[in-house]
Queue: 2 jobs
Job 1
Amino acid sequence: MTTPLLAVQNLAVTFDTAEGTVHAVKGIDFTVERGRTLGIVGESGSGKSVTSLAVMGLHRGATVTGSAQLDGTELIGAPDDHLRTLRGRKMAMVFQDALTALHPYFTVGDQIAEAYRSHFGGTRKAAHARAVDVLGDVGIPEPARRAREHPHQFSGGMRQRAMIALALSCEPDLIIADEPTTALDVTVQAQVLDLLTRLQRERGLGLVLITHDLGVIARAADDVLVMYGGSAVEQADAEALFTTPRHPYTRGLLDSLPRLDAAPDTALRAIPGTPPSLLAPPAGCAFHPRCPAYAATSDTRCTGERPPLRTVAGGHRSACIHDEVTA
Amino acid sequence: MIGYLLRRLAAMAATLLVVCALTFAVFYLFPADPAVQFCGKDCSTERIELVRQQLGLADPLIVQFWHYVTGIFAGQTLGTGQYAVQCGFPCFGYSFQSAQPVWDLMMDRLPTSISLALGAAALWLLLGVGTGVVSALRRGTRLDRTLMVGTIGVAALPVYFTAMILLYLVVTVAGLLPYPRYIAFTEHPGQWISNLILPWITLALLNAAIYARMTRNSVIETMAEPYVRTARAKGLRERRVVGKHGLRPALTPVVTMLGMDLGGLLAGALITESLFSLPGIGKLFADSLNKSDQPVVMGVTLLASFFIVSSNLVVDLLYAWIDPRARLA
Amino acid sequence: MTTPLPTAAAEGAGAPDTTEAPASPWKLALHRLRHQKAALVGAAIIAFFVLAALLAPVLTAISGTRPDTVDKKAVDPYLGGLPRGALGGISPQHWLGVEPLLGRDIFARLLYGAQISLLVAFSAALLITLIGTVLGITAGYFGGRTDALISRFMDVMMSFPSLIFMIALLSVARDVNRVLLLIGVMSLFSWPYIARVVRGQTLSLKHREYVEAARASGTRNSRILFGEILPNLTGTIIVYVTLAVPGLIGTEAALSFLGVGIRPPTPSWGQMISDAVLYYKVDPMFFILPSACLFLVVLAFTLVGDALRDALDPKGSRT
């Protein structure tokens, strides 16, 4: 058995705030293989972004425990000097809003060239040529000219492409894209997402795609991890998740999507309630206050211990006590 | 960029005109009799009448204002006949007491004021920005708290107190430095420094404290920006992340403030100049106040406004040069 | 697609706003303030000086001195009029010593000086709060041409060298009531700073749901301004006024120091410092006492203002 590109085990992240300790991520496991895309889906506060930052070692002021191995190299607890040589080079990140994630003072070309030179050295000229190349690779017209422009001179879609170019510039093995299309117009979203998946397939990259948008997952992910309140509540391949969702939360998410085959005036079914407080999370299953199964049964097991992920079918895991009942 | 420059210049010209109008109003409309004010203490009736004629106070106000404004750009002759006095370009008024154009009086004092302002600015930048950056990067530590409490204390020190204590301890008791007097840099650079160091400290302390607090806020805010996280995600060394990606934008507001403070300081150091008896523009202003030499008071007021308005322009241009986004505005 | 919830940036760190809201922001602020030693020290110093100023007539009756009584016996004519005795002539009659030359009692002059300093600073603070709030709210709420006009006016006012202009105005002003004049002139150049902050806050409040709802339901503008917007601005205004007070006290001292503020025989700290500067070598106490008062009051207001800002306006604001 070969080592997976990224293997995360029992990863937990806590923050100490003035109001108390926040358990942002409560022990999750997943693996990402080369050439595959893992989609992590969840609402704000579900811990999906924190997970990605913890893997990259970019969590500031947080305590991270557990294990995350990139190609067999342990990342958690590794000295920052070592992590730095991996960041950008072996694993790269695409951030949500390229307007704020790219530096306003420097040209796009300079920002890409800077990343390249910091890992490979070489002349400024060579690094700049490399920047123009990757800008071309991500479909930016006239890359040589655009490389000399500042981020604010780019359109939203082009800016996000530049962000992807920056991530690709040092030919990493793993790319983590955190809500890469959320800030974009709908039509541009599809283009950027297609670009990302095309590059991922062509180059055999491992891709972690973090989103709150099931549409994005459906379009791009091979495997899916559903997060709620800092824990994984369901894990499956994309096909299985969309055809036979097991966890009540996943089902709620799917029900809240508009469907083409529904009658025109069917109301969308939103999940009632709000995401849980991270400071004072509900006891037991974090989802129980909003869960229809709990509402119907008032099962004391829902409020007792946090239900663990259990295998419910081949490669399909879910963290619900009612699974047998509701399956 | 050219269009931006032209727009800014036009706005500056408009502000200057407003400033001229207000200054004019203060000195020509506010007093009971401008002639008495402009002539000064113990003026005979004949002299007051002469001043009245030289200032053209019999003309309609708008004509007086016109002469006043055009005088700045073209110079003017005050009065007629044998009593006429020349006030060449740029005419900022004429001191009847010292029988000299105000501009000449001010230009004599300018080198002192510039020396004082530049030295003090260098000092407070060094102290303030240094403290602010260290405090921000060590946020929440004992060092940070100590420094920030220190800045509050320093900011509350009255300049009189700082100046006199420094004079007393360093000059009178320890005899380490001479009693400050102005020596031109070109004349003797070493003495220029040793004479001005106490006034520099006096003038710099308050601003050092203010800049330290502002820099700290700005650095903390900038270091939380997504683009700083991107710089880390690229795998850059922390020193480069902080130095290039963090500090450059964090210090932009500091540059802005520096420009405005420097502009204000050229005539605004009057208390420090008075305390150390340094012959700067501020001292000229304070002395003229005591002598009731109103034309000089008015001239310095106008010059001080010009300094501030033009330093605002310089700051805007500098800002556009540092931050590419500002060029669009 | 799914419910578009706030973006991922707020994840984890954004937790506090999901907790239940505290009963009232004022209670929370008061709670936070109690735990700030610096703020308590500041408040104590302010209380001390305010009491001293208010009780000046009582206290001077006890000490048996008047601020303007000349006591030639307390100074030594053979020493150029320096106070007799150590530390600037401290004695049972003159608790904090006397001025050189005239021998006026420093204790009494400091007390009456505190009256003037605080009176001028507080009145000016009140005035700039009024002007700044009214103009700031008007500009922010009504927007458009009103806003453009007021904002331009503020820009012009702020591009003046304020100290120089204040001095110029005071030097040509007809001599009426110096105190009123000082308050007026100081306020004239200080209100734009508060107005700018109030304007910014009003702009953001204007688009909150409850304000839009009130407007949509036809509530009168005045009701919205005083009922919905103003209450939400009080915290910010209090913070800025508190932080403006030390500046005003310092300005009053500077103006009096330069001889265009409070005129003798009315005592003021700035004037005392100005007199004392000549004697800094031979009679340092005369110089140190008013400076120390000035330092303490400015420090106290800064401490309290800073703590208030942290408590009421956690995001703070940058100048």
Job 2
Amino acid sequence: MTSQGGVQYSKIAEIKGPLVVVDDVENAAFDELVEIETKEGERRLGKVLEVGNGKAIVQVFEGTSGLSISGTSAKFVGKLMEMPVSKEVLGRVFDGLGRPKDGLPDPIADKFIDINGEPMNPEQREYPKDFIQTGVSVIDGMITLVRGQKLPIFSGSGMSHNILAAQIARQANVVGTKDDFAVVFAAIGVQYSEAEYFRRSLEESGALKRSVLFLNTADDPAIERIITPRVALTVAEYLAFDLGMHVLVILTDMTNYAEALREISAAREEVPGRKGYPGYLYTDLSTIYERAGKLNGRKGSVTQVPILSMPSDDITHPIPDLTGYITEGQVVLGRDLFRQGVYPPINILMSLSRLMKDGIGEGSTRADHSEVSNQVYDAYSRSQEVRALAGIVGKAGLTDIDLKYMEVGDMFEKEFLTQVTDENRTIEETLNLLWKIVSKLPKNEITKIKDKYIDQYYQGK
Amino acid sequence: MVSNFALEETIDKILHNNEKSVLSNIQSGFIESQKTLDNAIPKLEQEFDKIISDGKKEADKIEKQIIGSSDLEARNKQLLALEIAIDKVFTKAIDQISNMTKSDDYSNLIKSLLEESTQILGTTNVIVNTNSKDKTIVQNLLSKYPGAELSSDTIDCLGGITVKSKDSTMKFDNTLDARIQRMKPLIRKEIASQFGVGN
């Protein structure tokens, strides 16, 4: 930060959607922060998207409504957008641009960090292999989240992803270590009631103390949504790599982020890609998702749980599709389960945590974790086939073992999957529940678990 | 008499058999209830453990809530108090700046501000604005900048200058107020560290 300010230009050539084109500009830099001042003296922030031929295209975060060509000026601040960070950001609530929203003053900054972050040196990355307990059985038991992983939740409109996100934010913790844990929660384009729910939920559970909230509500300008995940990740990186904390970043809803990107792209008259999203959507998403990880020789970690609602529940939509290429697995919420009133309605057959195998087992969770999880996965998959068969031939046409599997499927959904929103299950409780389900099967059906674990944990006759 | 004796013997036998059967029933009932009771004990213990563990969990949760929210409340009060103190220091510093006597150093400062501003705008063909107190100092320095003019309009500021190109398309604010504003986050940090915060 310097005391030197920037030049204020008052020759505005054009205002187009969220963009302002400033004429006769010299020395502007790509991504430079710009202060737009209206005739009435109101100030808005923006950043340079393009420079050349004496023109600068500025993207105004707070929108361009009310701006006119005459009387508007643009001050090029001479620096990139920075987020003031310090340990004091914990327990604070900010808006989508990182300004306090809780009535308290700006945090006293320890550092000012460029919100675009520094790319992690791939050689310095450490392979994620430590377990994070979310307290949600189905995630901990079968789609385990690992410190430094990026594991998105694919949801659909109206489903309970926000309740799940808040539950994870309240309950998540690292077990077996005394390292500090923090949650950075970025709500992108959510309704006011949802933003309030997140805030209240963390406040009432006492989890706000170790959390930082960034709230961009649906009525905030769409363009702010481009910044929200970046300021959130900047804070997360500081907490993780400067203060050595394990940080879980929850970004909800990334679909709103992608839509803001599409809006800017359309205003810039770029050639649209699939469904009108810009051709660089993949690259842009990767600049967010790739900010998760662990670094060699550094104590902390940044784990990401981006949540996205799939338009029309379409998993082949460009947003989940491209997200899936970058992230390490996915948690998919199922419409059928949601309709049945199951919470959390996670469809485990479509979900996967690619790093789970390295984060579970002896020393992390329990030696039998992987095997009992595989056995339940297998049994639930079989129960789904049996249910389909029963739909055709009726229950009377099923064999005894088919009926057993059906029972296992029901038990899985009612006792394991279903959980109250404030029920925080330990990994031990989760694994015991998995064994309770496995124990419904006759021993000769258990093919994925070693005998020694069956002898130790099997509760059937 | 003989028949009475036989009758009594039969009755006794029946009574005895009944007594035996009743006793055996009582015995087996007792054993059965003992067994049920024995079986219920582990279940009861399990339930008891579950109630205790649920209660402990709930107590931990409530404790976390109470401690978390009171910690946060205390911290937030501290932040507000700190901000009030910082504001007081700021106000005092600004008062001192506005009341300071304009020495040669100040003239040098204005000179460097003029130098910086014309360099950033890339021209000396500019209109300079300043406050009424600094007008003479600025006027004396402008002779070194060909094309530069001092505006007759004064601005309300602590000191320093604003410079704009003659076609009014570019403006550079180099007043002390603007510089303080730009540096405010760092100054706040400095003041806070004097209060022992943020070190």
